[in-house]
Amino acid sequence: MRFKLHVWRQSGPNAKGAMEAHDVDGITPEMSFLEMIDLLNEKLLADGKEPIAFEHDCREGICGACSMVIDGVPHSPERAVTTCQVHMRSFQDGDDIHVEPFRAKAFPVLKDLVVDRDAFDRIIQAGGYVSVNTGGTPDANEIQIPKVAAESAMDAAACIGCGACVAACPNASAMLFTAAKIAHLGQLPQGQVERGARARAMVEQMDAEGFGNCTNHYECMDACPKEIHVEWIARMNRDYLKASLTAKD
Amino acid sequence: MQLDAKIPDGPIAEKWDRHRREMKLVNPANKRKFKVIIVGTGLAGASAAASMAELGYDVEAFTFHDSPRRAHSIAAQGGINAAKNYPNDGDSIWRLFYDTVKGGDFRAREANVHRLAQVSNNIIDQCVAQGVPFAREYGGLLANRSFGGAQVSRTFYARGQTGQQLLLGAYQALSRQIHLGKVTMRTREEMLDVVVSDGRARGIVTRNLVTGEVVSRAADAVVLATGGYSNVFFLSTNAKACNVTATYRAYKRGAGFANPCFTQIHPTGIPPSGDHVSKTTLMSESLRNDGRVWTPTKAGDTRPANQIPEADRDYYLERRYPSFGNLVPRDVASRAAKERCDAGHGVGPGGRGVFLDFRDAIQRVGRDAVAARYGNLFDMYHHITDSNPYETPMVIYPAPHYTMGGLWVDYNLMSSIPGLHVIGEANFSDHGSNRLGASALMQGLADGYFVLPYTIGDFLARAGNSGVAADAACFTEVEAEVNARTATLLAVNGKRSPDSFHAELGRLMWDKCGMSRTREGLEEALRRIPEIRAAFWSDVSIPGSGADLNQTLEKAGRVADFLEFAELMCRDALDREESCGGHFREEYKTEEGEALRRDDDFCFGSVWEYQGDDAPPALNKEHFTFEHVPLSTRSYK
Amino acid sequence: MSSLRNALRSSVGSKTLMALTGLALLGFVLGHLVGNLQIFAGQEKLNAYAQMLKDSGPLLWGARIGLVVVFVMHIATAIRLTLANRAARPDAYVVQVNQRTTYAARTMLMSGLIVLAFVIFHLLHFTLGVTHPEFAAEGMVDSAGRHDVAKMVVLGFQSIPVSCAYVVAQLLLGLHLMHGVSSLFQSLGVQHPQLAFLERGAGRAVAAVVVIGNCSIPLAILAGFVPEGVVL
Question: Can you tell me the ipTM of this complex?
Answer without folding.
Answer: 0.98
